[in-house]
Amino acid sequence: MALSVLLLLSAVVAYSIYRTLTRFISNLAAAKRTGLPYYVIPCSPFNWTGQAFRFIYMPLWKLFPRRHWENVQVVLTADWHYRENHRIFEKLGDSFIVISPGQVILYTENAEVIHQITSKREQFPKPTESYKLLSQYGENVVTTEGAEWRMHRKITSASFNEKNAALVFHESINQTQGLVSQWLGPDDKGNKTIKTIEHDTMALMLHIIGYIGFGLKLLWPVEELPPDIDPKLVKYSTLHPPAGHTMNFVDSLAKSLENIIILLIVPRWILNRLPFKKTKEAAEAQNNCMGFMHEFLHDKIDDVNQGNKEVGMDIMGQLVRTSYGEKAKGATLTDSEIIGNAFVMLVAGHETTANIMNFTLLELANNPPVQRALQKDLDNLFGDTDPQKWDYESCINPLMASLVAACMNETLRIVPPVVDIPKRVTPGQDQAIVRDGEKVVIPQDTFIGLTVAAVQRNPRYWPSKPSKITGAENDMDDWVPERWYRTEATASDGDCIEGADTEDFGGFAGPDTSAQLFRPAQGSYIPFSAGARSCLGRRIAQVEMVAALSVIFQKYSLELAVDEWASDDEVKLMSREQKAKVYKKAQGKSREDIKSATSLLTLKMHGSKVIPVRLVKRGEERFVSWLES
Ligand code: HEM
Ligand SMILES: *[C@@H]1O[C@H](CO)[C@@H](O)[C@H](O)[C@H]1NC(C)=O
Ligand SMILES: *[C@@H]1O[C@H](CO)[C@@H](O)[C@H](O)[C@H]1NC(C)=O
Ligand SMILES: *[C@@H]1O[C@H](CO)[C@@H](O)[C@H](O)[C@H]1NC(C)=O
Ligand SMILES: *[C@@H]1O[C@H](CO)[C@@H](O)[C@H](O)[C@H]1NC(C)=O
Ligand SMILES: *[C@@H]1O[C@H](CO)[C@@H](O)[C@H](O)[C@H]1NC(C)=O
Question: Which first-to-last residue range defines the signal peptide (predicted)?
Answer without folding.
Answer: 1-22
